[in-house]
UniProtKB/TrEMBL annotation:
SUPFAM superfamilies: Acyl-CoA N-acyltransferases (Nat). The keyword NAD does not apply. This is GNAT family N-acetyltransferase. Keywords: Acyltransferase, Transferase. It comes from Paenibacillus amylolyticus. Residues 1-139 form the N-acetyltransferase domain. GO terms for molecular function: acyltransferase activity, transferring groups other than amino-acyl groups. Pfam families: Acetyltransf_1 (PF00583).
Protein backbone atom coordinates (compact mmCIF):
# COMPACT_ATOMS: atom_id res chain seq x y z
CA UNK A 1 0.00 0.00 0.00
CA UNK A 2 1.21 3.48 -0.83
CA UNK A 3 -0.01 6.88 0.34
CA UNK A 4 0.09 9.62 -2.29
CA UNK A 5 -1.63 12.83 -3.30
CA UNK A 6 -4.88 12.40 -5.21
CA UNK A 7 -5.08 13.14 -8.91
CA UNK A 8 -8.16 14.00 -10.95
CA UNK A 9 -8.52 10.46 -12.28
CA UNK A 10 -8.94 9.21 -8.67
CA UNK A 11 -12.11 11.20 -8.08
CA UNK A 12 -14.59 8.62 -9.39
CA UNK A 13 -13.34 6.04 -6.87
CA UNK A 14 -13.09 8.65 -4.10
CA UNK A 15 -16.69 9.74 -4.64
CA UNK A 16 -17.84 6.12 -4.38
CA UNK A 17 -15.88 5.50 -1.17
CA UNK A 18 -17.20 8.70 0.39
CA UNK A 19 -20.81 7.95 -0.52
CA UNK A 20 -20.88 4.27 0.42
CA UNK A 21 -18.91 4.68 3.64
CA UNK A 22 -21.26 7.40 4.86
CA UNK A 23 -24.34 5.42 3.82
CA UNK A 24 -23.12 2.40 5.80
CA UNK A 25 -21.84 4.09 8.93
CA UNK A 26 -23.54 7.48 9.37
CA UNK A 27 -26.67 6.11 11.05
CA UNK A 28 -27.53 9.60 12.34
CA UNK A 29 -27.79 11.05 8.80
CA UNK A 30 -30.33 10.48 6.04
CA UNK A 31 -28.63 8.19 3.53
CA UNK A 32 -31.19 9.05 0.84
CA UNK A 33 -29.94 12.64 0.79
CA UNK A 34 -26.29 11.67 0.19
CA UNK A 35 -24.89 11.98 -3.33
CA UNK A 36 -21.65 11.34 -5.19
CA UNK A 37 -21.23 15.10 -5.64
CA UNK A 38 -20.99 15.57 -1.86
CA UNK A 39 -17.34 14.56 -2.10
CA UNK A 40 -16.46 17.51 -4.36
CA UNK A 41 -18.29 20.00 -2.15
CA UNK A 42 -16.91 18.57 1.11
CA UNK A 43 -13.26 18.48 -0.01
CA UNK A 44 -13.11 21.81 -1.84
CA UNK A 45 -9.80 23.63 -1.21
CA UNK A 46 -8.33 20.63 0.60
CA UNK A 47 -5.30 18.47 -0.03
CA UNK A 48 -6.37 14.87 -0.56
CA UNK A 49 -4.20 11.88 0.27
CA UNK A 50 -5.13 8.44 -1.02
CA UNK A 51 -4.15 4.97 0.13
CA UNK A 52 -3.70 2.76 -2.90
CA UNK A 53 -2.88 -0.87 -3.56
CA UNK A 54 -2.42 -1.70 -7.22
CA UNK A 55 -5.08 0.28 -9.04
CA UNK A 56 -7.52 0.13 -6.11
CA UNK A 57 -8.00 3.12 -3.84
CA UNK A 58 -8.52 1.85 -0.30
CA UNK A 59 -9.26 5.15 1.41
CA UNK A 60 -8.52 8.85 1.61
CA UNK A 61 -7.90 11.75 3.94
CA UNK A 62 -8.70 15.35 3.07
CA UNK A 63 -6.67 18.02 4.83
CA UNK A 64 -7.35 21.71 5.30
CA UNK A 65 -3.71 22.71 5.48
CA UNK A 66 -4.01 26.36 6.73
CA UNK A 67 -5.65 25.14 9.96
CA UNK A 68 -3.71 21.85 10.32
CA UNK A 69 -7.08 20.12 10.20
CA UNK A 70 -7.95 16.59 9.09
CA UNK A 71 -11.39 17.19 7.60
CA UNK A 72 -12.23 13.73 6.28
CA UNK A 73 -10.83 10.25 6.81
CA UNK A 74 -12.64 7.45 4.98
CA UNK A 75 -11.69 3.86 4.27
CA UNK A 76 -13.42 1.63 1.74
CA UNK A 77 -15.65 -0.72 3.77
CA UNK A 78 -13.87 -3.78 2.29
CA UNK A 79 -10.50 -2.41 3.47
CA UNK A 80 -11.61 -1.62 7.02
CA UNK A 81 -9.46 -3.02 9.80
CA UNK A 82 -6.38 -3.47 7.59
CA UNK A 83 -4.33 -0.45 8.71
CA UNK A 84 -5.44 1.89 5.93
CA UNK A 85 -6.90 4.53 8.26
CA UNK A 86 -3.88 4.37 10.54
CA UNK A 87 -1.46 4.96 7.66
CA UNK A 88 -3.55 7.79 6.22
CA UNK A 89 -3.72 9.42 9.65
CA UNK A 90 0.04 9.08 10.19
CA UNK A 91 0.78 10.62 6.79
CA UNK A 92 -1.71 13.43 7.50
CA UNK A 93 0.09 14.27 10.75
CA UNK A 94 3.43 14.18 8.93
CA UNK A 95 2.10 16.53 6.22
CA UNK A 96 0.41 18.98 8.58
CA UNK A 97 2.78 18.99 11.53
CA UNK A 98 1.61 19.19 15.11
CA UNK A 99 -0.58 20.11 16.76
CA UNK A 100 -3.23 18.84 14.35
CA UNK A 101 -6.98 18.69 14.94
CA UNK A 102 -10.05 16.89 13.65
CA UNK A 103 -13.71 16.66 14.53
CA UNK A 104 -15.66 13.45 15.04
CA UNK A 105 -19.42 13.10 15.43
CA UNK A 106 -20.18 12.16 19.04
CA UNK A 107 -22.39 9.25 17.94
CA UNK A 108 -19.58 7.74 15.84
CA UNK A 109 -18.22 5.61 18.69
CA UNK A 110 -16.20 3.35 16.38
CA UNK A 111 -14.29 6.31 14.93
CA UNK A 112 -13.77 7.92 18.33
CA UNK A 113 -12.28 4.68 19.65
CA UNK A 114 -10.01 4.45 16.61
CA UNK A 115 -8.68 8.00 17.04
CA UNK A 116 -8.04 7.52 20.74
CA UNK A 117 -6.07 4.31 20.00
CA UNK A 118 -3.95 6.35 17.58
CA UNK A 119 -3.01 8.82 20.34
CA UNK A 120 -5.56 11.56 19.74
CA UNK A 121 -7.10 13.35 22.72
CA UNK A 122 -10.75 14.40 22.86
CA UNK A 123 -10.61 18.02 24.02
CA UNK A 124 -14.14 19.40 23.93
CA UNK A 125 -17.59 18.35 22.75
CA UNK A 126 -19.40 21.02 20.73
CA UNK A 127 -22.41 21.52 18.47
CA UNK A 128 -26.17 21.51 18.78
CA UNK A 129 -27.83 18.72 20.81
CA UNK A 130 -28.79 16.78 17.65
CA UNK A 131 -25.42 17.38 15.97
CA UNK A 132 -22.75 16.98 18.66
CA UNK A 133 -19.11 16.33 17.79
CA UNK A 134 -15.79 16.02 19.56
CA UNK A 135 -12.76 18.15 18.75
CA UNK A 136 -9.69 15.91 18.93
CA UNK A 137 -6.05 16.99 19.02
CA UNK A 138 -2.81 15.19 18.26
CA UNK A 139 0.30 16.86 19.67
Amino acid sequence: MIIREAITSDYAQLRQIYLHSRQESFHWANADEMTLEDFDRDTSEEEILVAESGDQILGFASLYVPDRFVHNLFVHPQAAGKGVGKQLLQQSIYRLGTPVTLKCVSDNHKALSFYKKQGWNAVVEEGEPEARYWVLVYE
